[in-house]
Fold this sequence. Notes:
There is one protein chain. By secondary structure, the chain is of the alpha/beta class. It is 25% helix and 18% strand. It has 2 domains: 184 residues, 3-Layer(aba) Sandwich (Rossmann fold), CATH 3.40.50; 96 residues, DNA Methylase, subunit A, domain 2 (DNA Methylase, Chain A, domain 2), CATH 3.90.120. The strands form 2 sheets. A 7-stranded mixed sheet has the order 3-2-1-4-5-7-6, sandwiched between helices. Helix 6 packs parallel to helix 7. The radius of gyration is 19 Å and the shape is globular.
Amino acid sequence: MPAPLRVLELFCGIGGCAAALGSRAQVVTAVDIHPGLLSIYRHNFHFPTSVRTIESMADHEFRAGEVDLWWLSPPCQPYTRRGRQRDAADPRAAAVLSLIERIPRLLPPALALENVPPFQTSQTCQRLRDTLKRCGYQRCELQLCPTALGIPNRRLRYYLVASRGELLPLMAAGGAGRPLAAFLDPDPTPELFVPEAVAQRYRGALDVVDAADPGACAACFTAAYGRSHVRSGSYLATPDGLRRFSPREVQRLLGFPDQFRFPPDIAHEQAWRHLGNSLSVVAVRHVLSMLPGLA
Length: 295
Ligand SMILES: C[S@@+](CC[C@H](N)C(=O)[O-])C[C@H]1O[C@@H](n2cnc3c(N)ncnc32)[C@H](O)[C@@H]1O
């Protein structure tokens, strides 16, 4: 049995990357600025965590020589179409820029990153690309939606995988898809149902999918799901009325394992927010299969 890959999970949030890695890797340290997210992470994963800003880490904390892969899912706000798109000038890009600057000194054997599609044409991405090229990394960049992997949930994202060693060709996406109904709770709680007055008021603006439609595909669930009615994710038409997807249904669509749990004091609104900021576990697992230790 080869030794499990040692991963530094940067911007770890609730642990989407740890979920994608499963037992094939060991997270050496999971780092995030948000203590609440790290307590959810620790509720599910038994890896060491560190609450801090990435830009404040000293070089020795990256444990060069002991880590096989840097995983990065930096904040997307500097690049989103809805935001001001300040790119590298946005203070929220400081952490990822500090990582790019460290690459030539620390030379991680492999690095992988996930972000929103506009990241691909950003100055930040160009800086990363130039640095990787200069340091002799092989690189693959792609945009992937979980729908291409048979998941009935849209979440188009940009991925970059780079290695100083071999990168395997990406397996063809595809395979038999599962219908949306396979991801739904058998007994949804009453609080998920939308009052008739709200359903009427936002009629036409809500993205509604039918649980009985075998071809139904839910829209991307964003961090605003549960707070904003429009463009934050889909609603479900059921024989009992219109309802929101439960956090567990969103979690299942993202590909988190069934054992993944939010602590009992986390309200639905918080769980939706954290899941909306997280990632498609299925898509990340697929993309990381380009690394020999994770194929
Ligand atoms: C897009 S989310 C990543 C979510 C994560 N992949 C998950 O599965 O939940 C970005 C994360 O970066 C964290 N973050 C933002 N700025 C940071 C910084 N300067 N240092 C460390 N973490 C930071 C946020 O708290 C957030 O959890």
